[in-house]
């Protein structure tokens, strides 16, 4: 479990979850570790460009890792959850300001 303390981490986390597609991607990746971009594109009926853009947002928020899977004769990016639980600590930021 990861705890989010900083305002920047909380904002990035919230933005990442503000899209239904990104939430669906997270749920799918949790159930299918190592899911590839083509697999995600096919599963959600969106372009690979859309998958690339949305997985980048999830990666920037620290929610997923992207790794190169070498299998089936070619290298493909594979998606993995970093954590399956997060806690947002709103009080730590304000406690340090007093």
Mean pLDDT over the full residue set: 87
Radius of gyration: 15 Å
List how many beta strands DSSP finds: 5
Low-confidence stretches: none
Question: What is the share of helical residues?
Answer: 40-55%
- How far is the first residue's CA from the last residue's CA? 28 Å
Structural class computed from helices and strand pairing: alpha+beta
Query: Beta-strand percentage?
Result: 15-25%
Shape: elongated
Main sheet makeup: 3 strands, antiparallel
- Individual helix count: 5
> What is the spatial order of strands in the main beta sheet?
2-4-3
SSE pattern: EHHEHHEEEH
Description:
With 98 residues, this protein is of the alpha+beta class. It is 49% helix and 24% strand. The chain contains 5 helices and 5 strands. It has helices at residues 7-16, 20-31, 37-44, 48-60, 91-95, and strands at residues 2-4, 35-36, 64-71, 74-81, 86-88. Strands 2-4-3 form a 3-stranded antiparallel β-sheet. A hairpin with a 2-residue loop joins strand 3 (64-71) and strand 4 (74-81). The chain is elongated and about 45 Å long. It starts with a strand and ends with a helix. The mean pLDDT is 87.
